[in-house]
Amino acid sequence: MDNFLSWFNSPDTEKLNPVLVSSITHYELVRIHPFIDGNGRSARIMVMIVLYRRGYDIKRFFSLDDYYNQDRDKYYETLKTVNPDLLDLTQWLEYFTTGVLTSIKFVKDKVLGLSKDVKFLKKKGQIPLNDRQMKIVEKIIENSKITKKDVQNMFNLSHSSAYDELKKMLDLEVNCSQR
Asked: Fido domain spans which residues (predicted)?
Protein backbone atom coordinates (compact mmCIF):
# COMPACT_ATOMS: atom_id res chain seq x y z
CA MET A 1 0.00 0.00 0.00
CA ASP A 2 2.88 2.37 0.77
CA ASN A 3 4.29 1.96 -2.74
CA PHE A 4 0.86 2.41 -4.31
CA LEU A 5 0.10 5.54 -2.27
CA SER A 6 3.51 7.01 -3.09
CA TRP A 7 2.76 6.53 -6.79
CA PHE A 8 -0.83 7.74 -6.42
CA ASN A 9 0.22 10.97 -4.68
CA SER A 10 3.27 11.65 -6.85
CA PRO A 11 3.45 14.65 -9.22
CA ASP A 12 4.07 12.22 -12.11
CA THR A 13 0.59 10.77 -11.65
CA GLU A 14 -0.91 14.22 -12.20
CA LYS A 15 0.55 14.17 -15.72
CA LEU A 16 -1.25 10.94 -16.65
CA ASN A 17 -4.71 10.75 -18.17
CA PRO A 18 -7.29 10.52 -15.34
CA VAL A 19 -8.97 7.49 -16.92
CA LEU A 20 -5.65 5.64 -16.87
CA VAL A 21 -4.94 6.73 -13.28
CA SER A 22 -8.37 5.52 -12.18
CA SER A 23 -7.89 2.24 -14.05
CA ILE A 24 -4.51 1.59 -12.43
CA THR A 25 -5.94 2.60 -9.05
CA HIS A 26 -8.78 0.12 -9.48
CA TYR A 27 -6.43 -2.68 -10.44
CA GLU A 28 -3.96 -1.97 -7.63
CA LEU A 29 -6.61 -1.87 -4.92
CA VAL A 30 -8.06 -5.16 -6.13
CA ARG A 31 -4.58 -6.70 -6.40
CA ILE A 32 -3.30 -5.48 -3.04
CA HIS A 33 -6.59 -6.37 -1.35
CA PRO A 34 -5.97 -4.16 1.72
CA PHE A 35 -9.30 -4.83 3.44
CA ILE A 36 -10.95 -7.98 4.77
CA ASP A 37 -14.09 -7.18 2.79
CA GLY A 38 -15.23 -4.58 0.26
CA ASN A 39 -12.05 -4.27 -1.80
CA GLY A 40 -13.92 -4.24 -5.12
CA ARG A 41 -16.41 -1.67 -3.87
CA SER A 42 -13.58 0.46 -2.47
CA ALA A 43 -11.74 0.25 -5.79
CA ARG A 44 -14.84 1.32 -7.72
CA ILE A 45 -15.45 4.24 -5.34
CA MET A 46 -11.83 5.34 -5.73
CA VAL A 47 -12.25 5.25 -9.51
CA MET A 48 -15.15 7.69 -9.28
CA ILE A 49 -13.22 9.93 -6.86
CA VAL A 50 -10.18 10.03 -9.13
CA LEU A 51 -12.32 10.85 -12.16
CA TYR A 52 -14.22 13.53 -10.28
CA ARG A 53 -11.12 15.16 -8.80
CA ARG A 54 -9.46 15.20 -12.22
CA GLY A 55 -12.27 17.02 -14.02
CA TYR A 56 -14.81 14.36 -14.89
CA ASP A 57 -17.70 16.05 -13.13
CA ILE A 58 -19.99 13.09 -13.58
CA LYS A 59 -22.53 14.11 -10.91
CA ARG A 60 -23.46 10.47 -10.28
CA PHE A 61 -24.79 10.13 -13.84
CA PHE A 62 -23.04 6.84 -14.35
CA SER A 63 -21.29 4.12 -12.50
CA LEU A 64 -18.93 1.61 -14.00
CA ASP A 65 -20.72 -1.05 -11.96
CA ASP A 66 -23.37 -1.18 -14.69
CA TYR A 67 -20.65 -2.00 -17.24
CA TYR A 68 -19.01 -4.62 -15.01
CA ASN A 69 -22.33 -6.23 -14.17
CA GLN A 70 -23.17 -6.79 -17.86
CA ASP A 71 -20.55 -9.56 -17.92
CA ARG A 72 -19.15 -10.16 -14.45
CA ASP A 73 -17.03 -13.10 -15.65
CA LYS A 74 -15.27 -10.91 -18.23
CA TYR A 75 -14.50 -8.35 -15.51
CA TYR A 76 -12.80 -10.99 -13.35
CA GLU A 77 -11.11 -12.66 -16.33
CA THR A 78 -9.66 -9.35 -17.48
CA LEU A 79 -8.33 -8.56 -14.01
CA LYS A 80 -6.60 -11.95 -14.05
CA THR A 81 -4.87 -11.23 -17.38
CA VAL A 82 -2.33 -9.05 -15.57
CA ASN A 83 0.82 -11.01 -14.80
CA PRO A 84 1.78 -9.83 -11.28
CA ASP A 85 5.50 -10.24 -12.09
CA LEU A 86 5.46 -8.20 -15.31
CA LEU A 87 2.54 -5.87 -14.42
CA ASP A 88 1.51 -5.56 -18.07
CA LEU A 89 -1.88 -3.88 -17.65
CA THR A 90 -2.66 -3.58 -21.37
CA GLN A 91 -5.75 -5.83 -21.46
CA TRP A 92 -7.08 -4.39 -18.20
CA LEU A 93 -6.56 -0.81 -19.43
CA GLU A 94 -8.36 -1.60 -22.70
CA TYR A 95 -11.26 -3.21 -20.87
CA PHE A 96 -11.51 -0.39 -18.33
CA THR A 97 -11.31 2.47 -20.86
CA THR A 98 -13.91 0.73 -23.02
CA GLY A 99 -16.12 0.61 -19.92
CA VAL A 100 -15.72 4.34 -19.31
CA LEU A 101 -16.49 5.11 -22.96
CA THR A 102 -19.50 2.78 -23.01
CA SER A 103 -20.85 4.28 -19.78
CA ILE A 104 -20.43 7.86 -21.00
CA LYS A 105 -22.10 7.04 -24.34
CA PHE A 106 -25.00 5.42 -22.46
CA VAL A 107 -25.54 8.61 -20.43
CA LYS A 108 -25.26 10.76 -23.56
CA ASP A 109 -27.83 8.64 -25.40
CA LYS A 110 -30.15 8.74 -22.40
CA VAL A 111 -29.92 12.53 -22.16
CA LEU A 112 -30.50 12.94 -25.89
CA GLY A 113 -33.46 10.58 -25.70
CA LEU A 114 -35.01 12.65 -22.92
CA SER A 115 -34.67 15.90 -24.85
CA LYS A 116 -36.23 14.94 -28.17
CA ASP A 117 -38.82 17.69 -28.19
CA VAL A 118 -36.45 20.64 -28.68
CA LYS A 119 -39.16 23.08 -29.80
CA PHE A 120 -41.12 22.44 -26.63
CA LEU A 121 -38.05 22.80 -24.44
CA LYS A 122 -37.08 26.11 -26.07
CA LYS A 123 -40.61 27.45 -25.63
CA LYS A 124 -41.17 26.13 -22.13
CA GLY A 125 -37.62 26.27 -20.76
CA GLN A 126 -36.10 23.62 -18.60
CA ILE A 127 -38.51 21.65 -16.41
CA PRO A 128 -37.09 20.43 -13.10
CA LEU A 129 -38.01 16.77 -12.63
CA ASN A 130 -37.33 14.57 -9.63
CA ASP A 131 -35.96 11.02 -9.99
CA ARG A 132 -39.41 9.45 -10.01
CA GLN A 133 -40.62 11.82 -12.73
CA MET A 134 -37.49 11.15 -14.81
CA LYS A 135 -38.23 7.41 -14.64
CA ILE A 136 -41.80 8.05 -15.75
CA VAL A 137 -40.55 10.08 -18.73
CA GLU A 138 -38.07 7.31 -19.61
CA LYS A 139 -40.88 4.74 -19.50
CA ILE A 140 -43.06 6.91 -21.75
CA ILE A 141 -40.24 7.34 -24.26
CA GLU A 142 -39.49 3.61 -24.12
CA ASN A 143 -43.12 2.47 -24.61
CA SER A 144 -44.74 5.56 -26.19
CA LYS A 145 -47.23 5.58 -23.30
CA ILE A 146 -47.70 4.97 -19.60
CA THR A 147 -50.67 3.95 -17.50
CA LYS A 148 -51.56 4.64 -13.91
CA LYS A 149 -51.05 0.92 -13.28
CA ASP A 150 -47.51 1.18 -14.71
CA VAL A 151 -46.71 3.98 -12.27
CA GLN A 152 -48.21 2.00 -9.39
CA ASN A 153 -46.04 -1.01 -10.23
CA MET A 154 -42.87 1.01 -10.89
CA PHE A 155 -42.90 2.67 -7.48
CA ASN A 156 -45.17 0.44 -5.41
CA LEU A 157 -47.75 3.23 -5.08
CA SER A 158 -51.44 3.26 -4.30
CA HIS A 159 -53.97 4.07 -7.03
CA SER A 160 -54.37 7.66 -5.82
CA SER A 161 -50.60 8.26 -5.38
CA ALA A 162 -49.96 7.06 -8.94
CA TYR A 163 -52.69 9.42 -10.15
CA ASP A 164 -51.06 12.28 -8.20
CA GLU A 165 -47.67 11.59 -9.82
CA LEU A 166 -49.15 11.69 -13.31
CA LYS A 167 -51.18 14.80 -12.49
CA LYS A 168 -48.02 16.61 -11.30
CA MET A 169 -46.43 15.89 -14.65
CA LEU A 170 -49.47 17.14 -16.53
CA ASP A 171 -49.46 20.28 -14.37
CA LEU A 172 -45.78 20.81 -15.26
CA GLU A 173 -46.79 20.38 -18.91
CA VAL A 174 -44.17 17.70 -19.43
CA ASN A 175 -44.30 16.72 -23.09
CA CYS A 176 -42.81 13.35 -23.97
CA SER A 177 -43.93 13.17 -27.56
CA GLN A 178 -41.33 12.20 -30.14
CA ARG A 179 -42.45 14.17 -33.18
From this structure: 1-98
